[in-house]
Design a protein that fits this description.
single chain, about 300 residues, mainly alpha, 14 helices
């Protein structure tokens, strides 16, 4: 099984979270990036069916305020061509392969603790936002769609195991520098207003936490026709996979850094199709696949070229 072949794809997924969680561009005074911003930026990569109505309203209200405060910043960004983010995605793993693999493992672990119904709701909100942005300048979604993404993500995060999600705060190498570089692109007054709204949303999420109570149990399926074919495929491809440095794949890095800038609308359209396809999948099998990837990465972290067994 391959390990870090997954990292570029997951980092691309993390961009969706980074893009929707605009507080990544909004550190507090004195240039200190709060831990929850760094956690949000990494990811990836889920939140809140069993929460009391008062808490649900709290998230709704806070997400609406956050959307109002951050949308003016979001409108100024060309999401189809963001060189700062593209450069980070293209180079972060090569600079610290083991650190990035460990961060991805923590991201997957946090995702496994989330309520699958709320993960699905967040994916659907992203799907709708991308569709609504395809014909807009800079691929900026309308404010209503943007707000729905923010609320869905907040509810998803509230469903995660708090300790596992908190473990993401310092997980991704170079994330603090990324935050500060992004922050430098914004109007300081608007950024601070957005950060204040983000703090309110963070408190609402904390108050609404179900702490992983609704996570799916991992039930892997093995054997049968698919299992036999997968084993044949693994046996045939493993010698090829062993020759690749999964922590520093220059071709993949180059593709990530250039693909969206070369054709922003087509790349966004492709993401939309990935999300639509994911929405048709069995949540139990998705959970099993995520758990298998996490186990593979954990087993590869100390191996040459980050190659799993």
């Amino acid at each position: 099984a391959r390990s870090n072949v997954l990292i570029p794809a997951l980092l691309l997924g993390a961009v969706a979270f980074l893009v929707s969680q605009r507080p990544t561009f909004v550190p507090p005074p004195a240039g200190q990036v709060p831990t929850h911003l760094r956690a949000g930026a990494a990811a990836i990569p889920a939140f809140l069916a069993a929460t009391p109505a008062a808490y649900a309203d709290s998230i709704s209200d806070a997400a609406a305020k956050f959307t109002d405060a951050t949308y003016p910043l979001a409108e100024k960004i060309n999401w189809g061509n963001s060189p700062i983010i593209s450069n980070y995605l293209a180079t972060a793993s090569a600079k610290d392969p083991k650190g990035m693999a460990t961060a991805i493992s923590k991201l997957l672990d946090a995702g496994l603790s989330m309520d699958p119904a709320l993960v699905r709701a967040a994916v659907r909100a992203h799907d709708k936002a991308i569709e609504s942005a395809l014909d807009k300048p800079g691929l900026v979604a309308p404010k209503e769609a943007y707000g729905k993404v923010n609320e869905a993500l907040a509810r998803m995060i509230a469903s995660a195991d708090q300790q596992k999600f908190f473990a993401l705060k310092d997980a991704f190498p170079g994330n603090k520098d990324l935050q500060m570089e992004l922050y430098s692109q914004n109007n300081p007054e608007q950024a601070q207003a957005a950060f204040k709204a983000f703090e309110e949303l963070t408190q609402a999420v904390k108050a609404s936490s179900t702490n992983g109570a609704n996570a799916l149990a991992v039930t892997a399926q093995r054997g049968g026709r698919i299992g036999d074919a997968a084993k044949t495929f693994s046996d045939a491809t493993y010698p090829v996979a062993q020759k690749i440095d999964w922590g520093n794949t220059k071709l993949v890095g180059k593709y990530i850094s250039e693909v969206s800038a070369n054709n922003p609308k087509a790349t966004a359209y492709a993401f939309d199709k990935v999300l639509e396809s994911g929405l048709t999948m069995d949540p139990k099998l998705v959970t099993a696949a995520v758990a298998a990837h996490k186990a593979a990465i954990d087993g590869a972290v100390n191996n040459p070229n980050l190659m799993a067994s």
